[in-house]
Amino acid sequence: MTVEVVHETPRNYSGALLAAIAVAVLLGLGGIIWSFELNSKLADQQQALANAAAQNAKLAAAQQETNARLNVALDELKSSLGLTEK
Predict the structure, then answer these.
(1) N or C: which end of the chain has fewer CB within 10 A?
(2) Mind spelling out the 3-state secondary structure of 39-59?
(3) DSSP E strands: which ranges in the chain?
(4) Radius of gyration of the chain (CA)
């Protein structure tokens, strides 16, 4: 009876594995930072949009008020013109 002893040489992947893990961690952190920056920019844009909508509402109200005053003035002018024609 002969016993064969198989000696396997240990493979050393620890350096490549550590490098891959480090790259993955750095990419993950970069992605998280990028997401926070995009979230901040999105919040700023949403605030600017809300401010623009409020300004548009104020301008629309002012325009309606101006139109009402112009209609009153036009009606007065029409009645005044009607009196002078008669």
Answers:
(1) N
(2) HHHHHHHHHHHHHHHHHHHHH
(3) none
(4) 39
- Coil, helix or strand at residue 17: helix
Q: What is the pLDDT of residues 57-84, one digit of tens each?
A: 999 999 999 999 999 999 999 888 876 6
Torsion of CA 26, 29, 31, 33, to 10 degrees: -130
How far apart are alpha carbons 57 and 55 in whole angstroms?
5
Task: For residue 8, give Cα distances in angstroms to 5, 11, 14, 63.
Answer: 10, 9, 17, 87
Tell the residue number behind the tokens 């009153």, with chain if given: 72
pTM of the model: 0.57
